[in-house]
Amino acid sequence: MDKIQQRFCSACLLIFLYISLTLSNPAQAKDNINIVVVLSKNTHPYQQFHKQLEATLISDEQRSIKIFVIHSDIIESISELSDSGINPDFIIAAGTRAAQELIKLETSTPIIFSLLPGSSYQNNIQNSRYCRIKNRCSAVYLEQPIDRQFLIIKKGLPDIRSLGIILGPSSAIMRNSILRAEKKYGIDVRIELAEKGNNPIILADSLSKTSEALLAIPDPDIYNRRTAKGILISTYKYQIPLIGYSHGFVHAGALFSIYSTPEQIASQTGMMLMQAILSSQKELPLPEYPHAYTVEINPAVMRSLRSRINFDKSISDN
Amino acid sequence: MHKQASCLYALTGLIAVLTGTPQLQATELSEDDFLQDLPVVLSATRLVQDKRDAPVATTVIDREMIDASGFTEIADLLRYVPGFVVNYDSGHVQAASYHMLNNNLARRMQVLVDGRSVYIPSLLGVQWISLGISIEDIERIEVIRGPNAASYGSNSLLGVISIITRHASQDKGVMAKINAGENNLAEGFLRLGGGSENLDVKVTAAYRQDAGFVERYDSYQVRKLNARADYQADLNDRLTFYATFNDAKVQEDNVFSRDIPNHPANILSRTFQMDWTRSLSANEDLKFQYYRQCYGKQNRYQHAGTPLFIDQGRHSERDDFEFQHTLSPLDNLNMVWGAGLRTDQVFSEYYLGQTPARTNRSYRLFGSLAWNITASTLLNAGVMLEKYQITAGTELSPMLSLNHYLTNTDTIRVSASTAIRSPGLIEEYTDVRVGGNTIAYDAGKLAPERILAYEVGYLGRFPHYRASLDLKLYHEYIRNLISLAAADAAGNLPYHFANQDNAETQGLEATFSFKPNHKLRLEFSYAHAHIQASDVRNTTQYTNSSPNDSFSLQIIQRFIQGYQGSLNVFYHSEMKQLATEDMRSANTRINLRLGKTFKLAGNKTDVSFTVQNLLNEFETTRLKNVARRRIYLSLKLEFR
């Protein structure tokens, strides 16, 4: 899908939402909707998220959307807003730190937890006291569903027959999804389960010997700044590509990465919020994986490994 | 046993604490894992060119081949490269060269260790036992079969051997290995590796002793210590430090002259290297490299039957600085350009007739590009401009090749490349006098040796069979070969170095690789060569310096429960013996290795049994290098 088409589709969606908003409450007075956006940090990715979210949440004749941004002293700042008469209708949490703070709130404001991994939401947020109330919480995850990763690998590297995957303590839960995808896409998957005491670099070395590519599944105990270099060097030693899950991995030397940018996550979060605003009960939908994603290629690695990828260059599917 | 295992576990834990080996603990995944930047690991400089795109034929000897080879000497590994000849001048002097091996120094090859030339100016060649690294340090050896001065400069006349050691991040923990076998072979290696998020460090200590050849006085002991540190200063800046120390105690003899008695000699070499790579993007790097190499040989003996003491000691120092810029200005264009400065100093009263050093400063400017003219055609072009203090004029060495991909799996290559070998200080300024008699003198300026090589190559990959075939047809013209010329046709003293020979080599080389599964691997290479040379001084110096036919075969088979076996066969037809006009007979050598890998208290352990020269086939020549069958055992433990 080229960029003009993507923009056209986005524009159509916004027009549709605009018309829906206009037609749904023709006789009502203009509503004021307060959105509080809580950023875990005030660094570039979070600022990009905030900027794109603002671009997605547009006020209209029926609704006036006001956005308040917080990135420090979260609970205190929300209290201060309430004290000054601004009660949030919705809260958007960007990142894990913001999420962990917000579940301590004593209010009943619906919260969309965004820009965080699914496991982080499922393990720490979903079952918290705050989110036990039905439809009060939802999420937009940051990681890609396993099925999508296999689909893209199969599309990009159609000749691939075997894929090595290291699973660690946080990612072991993905094993069943991976085995389902293995059957569905006909790729022979070799999984190394890292146990305590295992060195991920040695596991990568061993898998690289017997696999045609290594797929990195996010797990901080396997892939981190300390191990990324050694793992990449292992794959390079055996002349096989590593498929990453972030821009950082492509920059470092992965053949390509499949990931969603903060802007893509922000757009989806904004859409989810608009749906909630439009719903009669102001209910949040179920958590979602990212709809839009980017496949970024490292051309130098592609040339060196003589990998024939069926993408001419990096793609972005919005 | 239980107690031993407990001790090993405790040791492993201690090592992990000491070395900072990454240990697994359940850490919560967060968005930081997706959003963080990672340092550039596979930068443009580090990425090697695919064989299909290389301007000349290349061979890679990887770690698996090295482990399965059964060899304990680095030079022997080159027997897997088609067209390479490896021979021993004595137990501790190995000679290896491509196409032409006429003496023990093989001075027409460029040999690099991690990008650092290990050519020794005072020796005019490479001393394989003094590299400072051992076979255990090597990740892979890339051999460029053909001249490539445009990329590697002077001395890459016949080819380039690039030895790449293992990155420090790959060798964390402790590795200990011993080899023990017949003929007094004893080797020990100890490697410690560790580091932090941005720093990886490893240190290797090695010892080797060997009795040499049975009928020679050529045993030796070598002690090596080397260190490597990889420091990621920030996301885009990487610093790598290397240091080596090599101390060899050798026995020297002379099987041709009774005037030189059996005597001991000491060889000490040290190197330091620092590389700074700045990645401007995934496609663009700047690299600065500095290295210093010091080599000294103490070699003093009493001339037989006389009160005269002769000191053939030599010492040299080399300082080299290079800047390199690698970039891809267009999607279909990769380029590299750079400049370098080198200073060689040689001290040797015996060879140079003076105590002060002779110096040779040189400058180089180089550039090359790989341009995908169309989706199926790649043009490689390069040039090296060199200026040497001791020779007249500036030397220009261009290279051009066209690689055409017939299909996704078939490539043909046509190339023309040139290179020079600048005369060394000892060749240019030789002045040897013994007891008032002139043995060799400086007869005036020497011109560089020059090669022009044409090559037609085919590279086929057969993914269905997991096989590949690499063919090369070549024709090389070598001019101004430098060698010792005698005072007269009878070969009388005094000698002098002169550009006195030309040679033409032509032949065919083939490599077939077959890996049907992860358990079986077969590598076969064959070379046919024919040399025509002027051989002014003697009749065979260059003409017979390569066998007409040679091949190598390696079969690696992995069995169940960690057992593995490898069979290595090497053959060459008759050729000239080093240092003589004698002919070596055709020879077949077989190495057999059986090994088992298992876990001992959770740590990887390898034991192996190796037979070198299984057929006990050896030659009897005047050089007396009788290499009998040898069996050795090996034990390797890795605590990570």
Entry keywords:
heterodimer; A: 318 residues; alpha/beta; Rossmann fold; 2 domains; 7-stranded mixed sheet; 5-stranded parallel sheet; 12 helices; 12 strands; 42% helix; elongated; B: 640 residues; mainly beta; Maltoporin, Chain A; 22-stranded antiparallel barrel; 5-stranded mixed sheet; 6% helix; disordered N terminus
**CATH architecture label name of the largest domain in chain A:** 3-Layer(aba) Sandwich
Radius of gyration of chain A: 21 Å
In CATH terms, what is the fold-level topology of the largest domain in chain A? Rossmann fold
Number of helices of chain B: 6
Plain-language structure description:
The complex is a heterodimer of chains A (318) and B (640). Helices cover 42% and strands 19% of the residues of chain A. Chain A has 12 helices and 12 strands. Chain A folds into 2 domains: 3-142 and 262-287, Response regulator (Rossmann fold, 3-Layer(aba) Sandwich), CATH 3.40.50.2300; 146-258 and 295-317, Response regulator (Rossmann fold), CATH 3.40.50.2300. By secondary structure, chain A is of the alpha/beta class. Chain B is mainly beta. Chain B has a single domain, classed as Maltoporin, Chain A (Beta Barrel). Helices cover 6% and strands 57% of the residues of chain B. In chain B, a hairpin with a 6-residue loop joins β15 (300-302) and β16. Chain B is globular, with a radius of gyration of 25 Å. Chain B starts with a helix and ends with a strand. The model of chain B is unreliable at 1-23 (pLDDT under 50). At the A-B interface, α5, α8, α9, α10 and α12 of A face α2 of B.
